Amino acid sequence: MMKFGKIFLAGLTMILGLGLMAGNVQPLSASAAGTEYYVATSGSDSNAGTNDAPWKTLQHAADVAPAGSTVYVRGGVYNQKLKITRSGSASQGPIVFTNYGTETAVIDGTGLSVSGTQGLIELANVDYVTVQGFEIRNFATASKNAVPVGIYVHGSGGFINLSNNKIHDIKNTVTPTGKDRLGRDAHGIAIYGTKAPASIHDLTISGNELYNLVLGSSESLVLNGNVDGFAVTDNLIHNNDNIGIDLIGFEGTAPNTAYDQARNGLVKGNRVYNNSSNKNPSYTKDDNSAGGIYVDGGKDSIIEQNYSYSNDIGIEIASEHAGKATSNITVRSNVIYNNRLTGIAMGGYDDERGSTVNCKIVNNTLYKNDTLGGGSGQLFVQYDTQNNVIKNNIFVASSTDVLIYNEYTKNSGNVVDYNLYFAPAGSSEASWTWKNKEYTGFLAYKKGTGNDAHSLFIDPKFVNAANGDFHLQSSSPAIDAGDTDRAIIGTLDIDGKSRVQGAAVNIGAYE
């Protein structure tokens, strides 16, 4: 299990300059560290880089700014790429690229070429770098196998902060051909740990908005390969044609398989909605496989206090690679509602995939997912699930009345208990499928499976579910009805309130 200190110190150490730098300090070619520099559309790279005599190009600033300096980018549209290869340091501080005051600095890729996988802003093998406050837009291609990215971080490095950026209209619009439909890819933010054992670590991605991305078979925000220690917090990710947030392993991104998993991370406080592959030509017609939050082969991470709604899948913890597992993921205190296929999915999507092992799904509120009516229910247990814990969740079925659907018999050691279920048709007509056997009625399901000995079937009494308010009324039967196992429930609910109040714990996301 991850250590919280490592995660939360990622941003703090950047600010305070604590710790040791992992490499890549370049010789200083501007003035002393701590200096402020300026870039403006009216500037010149032959200027001194002051507010009165700013530089013109972002790249010139990146090529000369020393550790500890801040590059302020004045308002305007910069039709430029920016590649950062210089590092800050623990002793002198990060190199910071930021908008100036309340001015809107727009980095616009209109008409710029895309070569291979390329970021409009790119960070290669750097430490102690902050990129914040930009609008990043219109980086697009219609070329197969060219991959435009809003912000692309790759190689190794650490103490990197990407915050409060607005990233949109990053697109690959090529028409996919061939049976595999591959070669049509783009990302809003992509973190690729491509070295080993050196990782990308102490990474903070916070407060960004990612929308209107045309991603093909890729993801809005992805951490792939040797990424070890990260916090993805308080981002707004919406209206994209594939996955919202993805933690990936086993794709061969890192050169050593022992390091090829995103891990030791925190995904917290994000709002992810309207992400769907339904009309994405990289997939078959009417595909509905885009997760709001997806862990595909990642491990040792926490997903908590997020809202995921109106996607294809609310949250998925799975592995697409045979013989490989997504493991030690905790999904807790999230609100997941009105997703098209299902609320939470786990396990491989068919029997040629990998497994979900030693994960915890705890204190989540799931409401009327499965809006397509396909019968995947609120919890979709797929191929090869082992030793997972599913407790303290509220599951409210859609019009299908399906609560859990598990058509695979490769299902062992999973503990399901202390949940609250409800369905429009009532207790006797609600449906569960477990190890490929369907049960109609709550009592039949409990007797036939041995699951949910301490669970309830009753209206949870939300404050106003129709308007997205899933707080509990004071008379809710979910209050004080959960398992108090402190090893799994965490310390805070989705509102940041203490999870344990007295000796009792609520079922669901809200305490």
Structural features, described:
- With 511 residues, the chain is mainly β.
- The two termini are 24 Å apart.
- The model is unreliable at 1-32 (pLDDT under 50).
- The protein has a single domain (36-455), classed as 3 Solenoid (Pectate Lyase C-like).
- The protein has a 16-stranded parallel sheet that branches. Strands 3-6-9-12-15-18-21-24-27-31-35-39-42 form a 13-stranded parallel sheet, with no helix packed on it.
- The chain is elongated.
- 6% of the residues lie in helices and 40% in strands.
- Residues 42-82 form the DUF1565 domain.
Q: Regions with pLDDT < 50 over 5+ consecutive residues?
A: 1-32
Give the amount of beta strand, in percent.
Answer: 35-45%
- Using the CA coordinates, give the radius of gyration: 24 Å
* Distance separating the two termini: 24 Å
CATH class: Mainly Beta
> Would you give the CATH topology?
Pectate Lyase C-like
What oligomeric arrangement do these chains adopt?
A: single chain
Separate helix tally: 4
User: What would you call the structural class?
Assistant: mainly beta
Number of domains: 1
What's the shape?
Answer: elongated
State mean pLDDT (0 to 100 scale).
Answer: 93
GO molecular function: carbon-oxygen lyase activity, acting on polysaccharides
Keywords: Secreted, Signal
Organism: Paenibacillus kribbensis
Pfam families: Beta_helix (PF13229), DUF1565 (PF07602)
